[in-house]
Amino acid sequence: MAAPAASAAVPAASSGAAPAPSQPDDDLPPVTLDGLISWNAQHSGQPHPAYAALDRARYYCKCRQDDRACQRADAIDSALEVALQEACSGQRDFYHRSDVGACETLDGLSLSSWVSPDCRAEPPAPVAAPAPQAPPPPAPNDTRRCAGGRLAECERECEAGTALSCAQLGYMFLGGTGVARDLVKGTQYRKRACDLGEPNACSNLAWQYMHAVGVEKDLAIARTYAKKGCDGGDDVGCYNRDELAREAAAAARAAAPKPPPPQPPPPSVCVRGHVDACTRECNAGKAKSCAELGYTFVDGVQVARDPAKSAAYRKQACDLGEFNACGNLAWQYIQGVGVAKDMKAAQAVAAKGCRGGDAVSCTNLRAAMGVRW
Asked: What's the CA gap between 70 and 28, in Å, rounded?
């Protein structure tokens, strides 16, 4: 897709080697978001002429090698992309969501730029745009003349205190529908509608204060209007109220003082042969200290040799996850050192140590199972 154009003005297609017929689409309606909104409001169901003009410009560019048609196609494509991207991103949305239709049209516009036109069939010549449609009549149960979007009637009825007419004026001026877009005036009408008891107008005001549309961002005011809309039975107001509550909770969590990081455990003072220090740490659940006691008593380092006590400490270390102790305990079961010979017990503790990645345990597991290298 072409890069966004700074201006929506588009050059008229001209002839190259093969002249293009006179094209009545040279003077396009404004190819901007306001132009698209205004066109849709006045020509319900009719596509904007820019789309047909783009198809014809692409045809003359690709099939007739018309350089000016290529420029025109790029300009129209860029202008449409800017307008649709603005609508898709929600920058100009007054209904609390991005325009899904605009997003889909934008995707289609991007894909179509990669598809070569069928040069066997020239696109049909554009036809004159239909006359703008008159506003629809009010619904049978709606006696307001403003129901069809008539500006003068809406203003008179709003001045007389009809809340729905004030809300209608808010939509018209905020969206630039049938009138020049005026955020300040649209917001004033919406506030009057809310004050007159139209809950949806209150909900929409909350959204404006949440996103700084026509007003300064003020979440406290937004919460007031959202609650008023929700209390009046409007689902949009309830959604905005809940969204504001979630944002406030997230902000409170972010501002809350962080708990201090956990302190690292004190360094071990257990050294092989220092029975008192190692015993304190082993009793506190330090597996390596229990394993050191196993070495201390099996080898008799600064203590009387006691293989049975060594086996007990090694079992405690193995249970605490010191896998090398599991392998050494398996060796004691295999050799009958401090414990009775027990190949099944040796296999059990050696298997645990081997699963934990201890090579000595794996070697002793093979020995306990009678497996020769």
From this structure: 17
What is the rounded end-to-end Cα distance, in angstroms, of the chain? 69
Structure tokens of 187? 């917001």
d(CA 36, CA 48): 7
- Residue 78 has a CB neighbour count (10 Å cut-off) of 20
Q: What is the pLDDT of residues 208-218, one digit of tens each?
A: 999 888 899 99
- Write down the pTM of the prediction: 0.39
> What are the pLDDT digits (tens) for 229-276?
999 998 988 998 998 999 889 888 888 888 888 888 778 788 887 899
Q: How far apart are CA 133 and CA 149, in angstroms?
A: 12
Contact 367, 334 (CB under 8 A): yes
Residue 278, CB half-sphere, CA atoms under 13 Å: how many?
Answer: 25
Length of the chain (residues) = 373
Buried b (16+ CB within 10 A) or exposed e, 171-210: bbbbbbbbbebeeebbbbbbbbbbebebbbbbbbbbbbbb
Cα 292 to Cα 275: distance, rounded to the nearest angstrom: 9
Cα 236 from Cα 244, distance rounded (Å): 12
3 state SS of 335: helix
pLDDT tens, position by position, 57-99: 888 888 888 888 888 888 888 888 877 777 666 554 433 334 4
Domains of the chain and CATH, by start: 1-117 (no CATH), 148-255 (1.25.40.10), 275-368 (1.25.40.10)
In the block, tokens 């190819």 appear at 31
